Amino acid sequence: MGGDQHANGRTFRERLLSRLVIDPSGCLLWTGARSRGGYGNIGTNTGIFAVHRVMYELFVGPIPDGLEIDHLCRVRHCAAPAHLEAVTRQVNTLRGYQALSWHERRARHASNA
Ligand SMILES: [Zn+2]
Fold it and tell me: Sorting pLDDT into bands at 50, 70 and 90, what band is 5?
């Protein structure tokens, strides 16, 4: 533990991106550790962070106080910035119940010839 970040010359960002793979569905899937809830986890010297939250902050911007990061695609270990949205807890919960498959709608739309 500690100091190995410099030993192998890899930055946090590189470690993060090296464990993400693009799924044919368009999701950016985390291949590293996951939390019990199914979210991607990445460990650093200062703690363990949820991958989708880290990705949101890296590629979209700071997460406003009190907001949760919702997955528009409903894939919990996905970290595609375009699939993430900062919402209130109420909205997040509601969307979870609705769970109209976002991928399904999107696929239908795409193949709608
Ligand atoms: Zn996704």
Answer: very low
Counted domains in the chain: 1
Segment 16-57, tens digit of pLDDT: 999 999 999 999 999 999 999 999 999 988 999 999 999 999
C-alpha of residue 103 to centroid of ligand 1, in Å: 9
* Cut 0.85: pTM above it: no
Residue 59 CA to ligand 1 center (angstroms) comes to: 15
Residues near 20 by beta carbon (within 8 Å), at least 6 away in sequence: 28, 29, 30, 31, 79
Tell me, in angstroms, the distance from the centre of ligand 1 to residue 2's CA: 32
Cα(4) to ligand 1 centroid in Å equals 31
CATH of the domain at 21: 3.90.75
Question: Are the C-beta atoms of residues 79 and 30 closer than 8 Å to each other?
Answer: yes
Ligand 1 centre to CA of 71 (Å) is 7
